[in-house]
Amino acid sequence: MSSLDQDQRLHPSCPDKTTVSSDSSDTHELAEKPLQGLRLASHEVLEEAQQKGRLKCSKCGGSRMFFCYTCCSLVGVNQEEIPSIKLPVKIDIIKHPNETDGKSTAIHAKILAPSDVTIYTYPCIPEFETDEAVLVFPGPGSVTVQDMLQCLHDRSDRKSHDSLDEPDPKRRRSEEALGATHIAEDLGSRTPDEAKGLESRVYPLQRVVFIDSTWNQTNRIITDERLQALLQVELKMRKTCFWRHQKGKPETYLATIEAIYYFLKDYHELCLAQEYSGEYDNLLFFYSYLHSLITKAKVSAGKC
Ligand SMILES: [Zn+2]
């Protein structure tokens, strides 16, 4: 354990009951299950890197293991050795300037899906189209992933109504009659421009925004009017496996990488209406490995 990042070390007071002991309480069961049965690339490369210990980041000189959270680059591991994931939507992560980088799991997403993930440091955030982007954050006005697309359609309709550029009602009706699945099949027979236009009507979601900060710092970001304009989406109740369980916070407060993973899984099943076969499991490639290390350390320390 000595070679692990300070922040990745087991905290003795951590109330997380994720263990492989004979503890059969409900807490144990629920905390243990989410990371089981994932379709993950082999962790061998991480095991080897861990044996080598911490190395200096070639860019900033910091002592790191697996990746540098400051430079967002791999350390002691090659890009070809780790999984690379293509996501169905772009992910924008907004992090609080005071967030300690070493604690953040947002970097996992950027490293594993580099072409689809962007990390911004608040208050620097991009402009969003309110009918193409959603913010994953629980709140009084938030909707479920299941209802999300309809809400975006409604926003889009309002927008085009406001701009007096109403869609052709005949075409609209025929699209509705076809249903999403048929339209998706139909996309192949259209010109790229036609298909793109139609696709954006069926699958309007382009960008998904996550906030990466401690619970207390989130308030400043969430009240920003640029984000207030976005549709808020709430994930189903999920229990965190996060080993740095934040004191006093509910167990449903997910680590950023967990939230991204669960969102995409729901999106795949509920919005794209496709069977999920582990497409995004490797987003948890580092997370599950670090989690298993913590678990082993707890067991050997006799904490459970
Ligand atoms: Zn670095």
TrEMBL record:
Domain DTW: 64-299
Keywords of the record: Nucleus, S-adenosyl-L-methionine, Transferase, tRNA processing
UniProt region (Disordered), positions on chain: 1-29, 156-179
Main localization, broad class: nucleus
Cellular compartments per GO CC: nucleus
The protein's Enzyme Commission number: 2.5.1.25
BP term (GO), one: tRNA modification
UniProt keyword annotation of Endoplasmic reticulum present: no
Catalytic activity line of the entry: a uridine in tRNA + S-adenosyl-L-methionine = a 3-[(3S)-3-amino-3-carboxypropyl]uridine in tRNA + S-methyl-5'-thioadenosine + H(+)
PANTHER family named in the record: NATURAL KILLER CELL-SPECIFIC ANTIGEN KLIP1, TRNA-URIDINE AMINOCARBOXYPROPYLTRANSFERASE 1
Function: Catalyzes the formation of 3-(3-amino-3-carboxypropyl)uridine (acp3U) at position 20 in the D-loop of several cytoplasmic tRNAs (acp3U(20)).
UniProt-recorded name of the protein: tRNA-uridine aminocarboxypropyltransferase 1
Organism expressing this protein natively: Myripristis murdjan
Gene that this sequence comes from: DTWD1
